[in-house]
Design goal:
heterodimer, A: about 240 residues, alpha/beta, seven-stranded mixed beta sheet, four-stranded antiparallel beta sheet, B: alpha+beta, 2 domains
């Protein structure tokens, strides 16, 4: 893990219809870091991810992802920003009219990659998530855990520097959750920064990484003290 | 940008959202068919009106004038812009015509030699009644001209009916076109809405808006081609087979401007244009309004 910051939120405030969600939030994620973003449901965790992939823009403050000043870039640059990150949601968002291979290949086709490279890369990422043998299956033939692995493979297809995961295990059983977490760990070990939104404390405890909590519109860094997560004094 | 991907997606798009695509094609087809029928019928009515107008002649009766004056009048008439043809009927020719028209027994009348020499003018069918009235008043003032006669009332009735028909036809055509545009735009929006998950997924992996839009435009053009082809076949079938057989009193209506490819080309072109335009507009708006997070 290097000291290079790949995600930086500086004094970011966000509100929806005059309802404040985030208030002067500061957060840094370094290259190759794995960070959990926890907090109660509806507190605005997903809004932080939306700011990063520029689905929303902050009212005030600055958002930077790799070299992109996210809140300042033009709409034309947004796709380039998104190619630098892989995004995984709780609902799998697979295209149910095409098979596993095509669902992953699709991410490379839309960015204009050559067919030969696409074939090679798709098989590589499917191998990484352990689904090479299922490449001809349709999403409906797969279990929830397998579908989420396809989504992760698709997110990795463009070799992103950052993986954003919004409750990726939210719809999965314990075994599938474990599989997904192992894959995310493996991805992180290969140098990709992972920012994972979750409210599953069991995962946070079982796979310990840096943990930040969103509370009252602000970010707090936490550390385990016995069985409890407690705030660290100087949040970043 | 992967053109193969765009083309493939555009073509398979219709298969993937069959209902929405069928609705789009059907609304385009109906609009183009109605416009095609309206154009062909309107053209034939217009041509019919023009051929009736062609029958309208202006007769210029002369006093007993010398040849030089007659030639001068002929020259002036020939120089008139809206006059297509000038034919001179001498006093003798007029008597001969009378004898021919009235038959035996008219000899005594003819011998009186009371019929004046005249000119018959054929005017341009495009000339309006006001243009003809002004021509008549100019001719009336020529030295040597006794009287000018033409069927002013028929011309006025024809003209007012034609104007009314043109306005009604144009209005109906415009209404069909507007309805079609709104219908096509909304049905194409439905087609695109049916693929919102695809749009979200494309945005998620960093596709540009123009790339996302491209397969929808290909699909829109393809829908236009299918709808246009269907409408063309229908117009062909209705005018060449159905009307001549089932409504023989109407007969075979001619193709606008005498050639089939003008109307067919216009229908086909308009259908493709509407498919392209509708899909482009709908895709543009919908893609801009679609967020990854739903």
């Amino acid at each position: 893990m290097s000291d290079t910051t790949v995600i930086e939120l500086s004094n970011v405030s966000l509100s929806y219809d005059a309802r404040p969600i985030l208030s002067n939030v500061n957060l840094k994620v370094r290259n190759g870091e794995f960070v959990y973003l926890i907090g109660p449901t509806g507190i605005g965790k997903s809004s932080i991810l939306k700011l990063l992939y520029r689905d929303v823009v902050p009212d005030t403050g600055a958002v930077r992802v790799t070299e992109f000043p996210v809140n300042k870039i033009s709409m034309k640059q947004v796709p380039m920003l998104r190619r630098r990150m892989g995004i995984v949601f709780q609902d799998f968002q697979l295209l149910d009219d095409r098979n596993v291979y095509d669902n992953v290949a699709f991410a490379l086709q839309v960015t204009g990659e050559k067919p030969k490279f696409i074939k090679q890369r798709v098989l590589e990422v499917l191998g990484l998530v352990g689904l090479s043998h299922r490449r001809k299956n349709m999403p409906s033939d797969l279990s929830g855990g397998e579908q989420q692995r396809v989504v992760i493979a698709r997110a990795l297809a463009n070799e992103p520097r950052i993986l954003l995961a919004d409750e990726p295990t939210g719809n999965l059983d314990p075994k599938a959750t474990q599989d997904i977490m192992e894959i995310l760990k493996q991805i992180n070990n290969r140098g990709t920064a992972v920012l994972m939104v979750t409210h599953d404390y069991a995962i946070v405890k079982r796979y310990p990484f840096r943990t930040v909590r969103l509370i009252d519109g602000q970010i707090q860094d936490l550390a385990w003290k016995g069985d409890k997560l407690v705030p660290i004094k100087s949040p970043v | 940008m992967s053109f193969n991907y765009i083309l493939r997606e555009g073509f398979t798009g219709i298969r993937r959202a069959k209902l929405a695509a069928t609705t789009s094609i059907f609304s385009l087809f109906v609009a183009i068919l109605l416009l095609g029928i309206l154009s062909r019928v309107s053209y034939n009515i217009y041509m019919q009106a023009m051929s009736i107008k062609d029958l309208i002649e202006i007769e210029v009766f002369l006093f007993d004038v010398d040849d030089q004056t007659t030639r001068g009048i002929a020259q002036t008439l020939e120089n008139e812009e809206s006059v297509l043809e000038v034919s001179y009927i001498s006093k003798d020719s007029a008597s001969a015509i009378m004898l021919r028209d009235f038959g035996p027994g008219a000899e005594e009348l003819v011998e009186l030699n009371f019929l004046p020499a005249s000119f018959k003018l054929k005017v341009d069918t495009e000339a309006g009644s006001s243009q003809i009235e002004s021509l008549v008043s100019r001719v009336q003032n020529l030295r040597g001209v006794d009287e000018v006669q033409y069927n002013a009332s028929l011309l006025k009735i024809m003209e007012s009916n034609l104007n009314m028909f043109s306005m009604a036809g144009g209005g109906i055509g415009l209404l069909i076109l507007l309805t079609a545009v709104v219908l096509v735009y909304n049905t194409i929006r439905l087609t695109i809405y049916a693929k919102r998950e695809l749009i979200r997924a494309m945005k998620l992996v960093g596709a540009t808006n123009s790339f996302i839009r491209s397969p929808f435009i290909v699909e829109g053009i393809l829908q236009g081609i299918i709808a246009g082809a269907l409408a063309v076949v229908c117009v062909f079938f209705v005018f060449e087979f159905v009307i001549p057989v089932y409504v023989p009193e109407i007969g075979l209506l001619s193709w606008p401007f005498g050639r089939w490819y003008f109307l067919i080309g216009a229908m086909f072109g308009l259908s493709i244009l509407m498919g392209w335009w509708g899909s482009r507009l709908a895709a543009r708006k919908f893609i801009a309004e679609t967020y990854i997070s739903g």
